[in-house]
Design brief:
Elements: H1 2-14, H2 28-46, H3 58-85, H4 96-128, H5 135-168, H6 172-176
Helix pairs in contact: 2-3, 3-4, 4-5
């Protein structure tokens, strides 16, 4: 019973509606951030470094460092913007477990993406410093690979939940997706 009480307090604090009004959709800036990150992340996966030895090409190394730095900065700006200006699109009557799960998935996406960029920057820095082998490099590469895999799982759950809400027709899909609108 204590757990349910704590979850209720959590939901009041983290899922409150602004000014007591129900959610009426994400802002254009929020939607632009969301869909831009889909494209940026897809590009990052497409052009990923397949073999760490590719970083011997100094222009590629510099590009990777610049890309990861910009990605991390934009991710931070997006996180702050969303946390300060947006609320959850889940209907008010959504079960607390689902609300907590949604929060975990969103934070998991942010964390895994930030970890990808941070570990990528560390790998680039180590490589540039000549530490391209050894236990430290191997450890950071493993964390990087784990972060990429975790991001795939979190994104998969996120997309699955969006599709679930599309069929549920509770307004969550329409709040962020500009196509296949609920009727």
């Amino acid at each position: 019973m204590m757990v349910l009480s704590n979850l209720k307090n959590f939901s009041v604090k983290y899922f409150a509606y602004k000014n007591g009004r129900p959610f009426d959709g994400y802002s254009l800036i929020a939607k632009t951030f969301h869909w831009s990150f889909v494209l940026i992340f897809a590009y990052g996966i497409y052009k990923q470094v397949d073999d760490i030895q590719q970083l011997e090409d100094l222009s590629l190394l510099k590009f990777e460092i610049l890309f990861a730095s910009i990605f991390l900065l934009l991710l931070f700006i997006r996180f702050v913007y969303m946390a300060k200006t947006q609320t959850s699109s889940l209907p008010e009557k959504t079960h607390i477990i689902q609300k907590v799960a949604a929060k975990i998935v969103h934070l998991g996406i942010y964390t895994s993406m930030a970890s990808i960029a941070i570990t990528g920057l560390i790998i680039g820095g180590l490589y540039y410093a000549g530490l391209n082998q050894g236990i430290i490099m191997e450890g950071i590469v493993e964390i990087h690979v784990f972060s990429v895999t975790a991001s795939y799982w979190f994104i998969g759950v996120h997309v699955s939940a969006a599709i679930y809400h599309r069929f549920k027709k509770d307004g969550v899909w329409n709040s962020m997706v500009p196509f296949l609108k609920e009727k």
